[in-house]
Amino acid sequence: MKQMMNLPRRFLGLPAPAKLNLFLHVVGRRDDGYHELQSVFVPVDLCDTLDFVWRGDGQVVRSGDLTGPEDRDLAVRAARALQATIPGDARPGVEIRVEKRIPVGAGLGGGSSDAATTLIALNRLWGLGRSRDELAALALGLGADVPFFLGRGAAFVEGIGERCVPVAAPDVAYVIVFPGVPVATAGVFSDPKLTRDHKRTTISGFSAALSDPAAGLFGSNDLEAVVRRSVPPVNAALQALEQHGPARMSGSGSACFGVFRSLDAAQRVAGSLRDAVPPGQQWSVWAVPGLPEFALADW
Fold this sequence. Notes:
Elements: E1 10-29, E2 35-55, E3 60-64, H1 74-83, E4 93-99, H2 110-125, H3 132-140, E5 155-159, E6 163-166, E7 173-178, H4 185-189, H5 203-208, H6 224-230, H7 232-242, E8 247-249, E9 256-260, H8 263-274, E10 284-289
Parallel strand pairs: 3-4
Antiparallel strand pairs: 1-2, 2-4, 2-5, 5-6, 7-9, 7-10, 8-9
């Protein structure tokens, strides 16, 4: 580690952005039970915010919005995994405060993004000097989506999520609807009606479809049909979005999105959707631009 006198003692207000799956194809199932996927992930301007304050007692302390047991929190797990790579007994600690905006169980990667921001921040706060490749290897043990958030921006993703190749992000805005209910990823992937043999696509095939990205959506989300049948609020959110153009579920749900040519157009649609929430349901609706790259890409 670098000399502690030369290191900052806190980082405040670091962003952890959500992602959308522009498509998600299930192309096979491995012998270990994991599914082989193809997808394009794009970061969007819907972010959790994290603060990090150095501690000298070696403790990892979590504060702010906590959505489950602390030991299962991905930011805490990321901090402890990175801390465990430091030799010796005098390891630094940290207090991590998280302000959540990204809903849990929405298919937006909020927990994975929090973990990636934690790895990036603590690598600097603790003066470790790890490369992004080293952080990504550690990240894969935390969750399949975490390595993506350590990249520069939009990526063509394969495997279980660990193989990421940068692609050009479409210059569009998104309306995201969270229909107020989480979806359990494991239950979706175990559904016997899930399609698991989608024909493989290519980066060039996806890129060619971006000539008019707001005119339609490339490919499909193979998990969407399973969730639409089993989670009525997701179906309702998709039907509402489909009144304004093509719509899709992100990841394993429950958040859904539509694509629009401008942020102004997205904001108008978001306003109309907020006024049309079905009785008895609680939706959150955002109009957001895509992010050309992560704010912490060069940290």
